Amino acid sequence: MQVVYTAAHLAHDIVTETFMGVEGPANEVAERAEIIRAALEADGGFRLTGPSDHGEAPITAVHDPGLVRFLEVAWSEHRAQNIPRPFLAADTYPNRAMFEGMSDEAVAALVREPVHVGGRAGFWGLDTAAPLVAGTYEAARRAVDVALTTADLVLGGETAAYGLCRPPGHHAARSMYGGYCFFNNAAIAAEAITRATGERVAILDVDYHHGNGTQQIFWRRGDVRYVSIHADPERQYPYFLGRADEIGEGEGEGENHNIPLRAGATNADYLAATDRAVEALGAVPGSVVVVSLGFDTYGLDPIGDFALTTEVYHEVGRRVAALGRRLVILQEGGYHRPSLGENARAWLRGADGRPFEPLPAAGFGPGGAVTG
Ligand code: SP5
Ligand code: ZN
Fold this sequence. Notes:
Layout: E1 2-4, E2 16-19, E3 22-25, H1 30-43, E4 47-49, H2 57-60, H3 65-80, H4 104-110, H5 117-124, H6 136-155, E5 160-163, H7 185-197, E6 201-205, H8 212-218, E7 224-231, E8 256-261, H9 267-282, E9 288-293, H10 310-321, E10 326-331, H11 337-351
Parallel strand pairs: 1-4, 1-5, 5-10, 6-7, 6-9, 7-8, 9-10
Antiparallel strand pairs: 2-3
Helix pairs in contact: 1-11, 3-5, 6-7, 9-10, 10-11
Zinc ion binds near residues 209 and 332.
């Protein structure tokens, strides 16, 4: 299988994040992508290739140009406004209750993006735990190129290809970044595929978190089906979307499928959910499925609460590939560094129709540092 990767992600150099007002070590770090790359190289069954520049048009096909412009200047504004912080995080968000009683027209006319970067980050952002640093925009642009190059490989005849996107994308909505995500790599790829082929496209999201951004972007769309297995938002980020009764509206009614799972979900629970998801994907025509692939479903993930083991990823990859659709597989989350390489190998080998043998000497030292 071909793997699209670029070292450009290293510019999104995240060290700390805040969770509920307290700073701690970052989860979405550069080492994640390097560990997966090293494991796939060690496997021998994967071929690395770089992304090609696809420009801004495929991004503004799903995102507000205002979001793109904000992300482009956010760090230089942060510096220019002398905010003494290692990363940009919002000060204030436009909570919908701030405008209660105002008409939609009044809000549209009177509420706007401010000058202060702590307000601008609130205007465009979802949460306080998505650090933005000097190299974020460049890395996020290249992650989109990784996704689009992966789609090109599949449209060019590959049965499946994997894009090692970093930063991830599925929490980014049309006009919003958040959840470690800046541009929605999977949504941008899905939109490009439906435009190129005229076919319907389905997206399978197996990250631990609900892909609120992808759901939002395609909510009213009849040509893009979104199917997601994730932690119940009652107890987990993104809290306000991801419930089973969110089915889409208008042309998109019935095209959005959310499968929330309980804390402690096991391999058996996950495979049952996978079968439901695969059935929903197979129920609509189209030759391509975009997969938002996360490993934060792993039992030891620091921010997840499922109980999955490495073996189940091979079986999920196998069952998704058994659909007979071509797969554009794009990396989202997964934060337990020692297991990331093996879990990616297991999933992708399953999707590739190959057996999975653990590589015990995969070259990871204590704490998951790459030693080889
Ligand atoms: C792409 C992706 O996986 N984004 C995840 C965004 C999650 N944001 C919330 C992180 C909360 C971290 N909670 C730490 C709890 C420690 N007990
Ligand atoms: Zn996640």
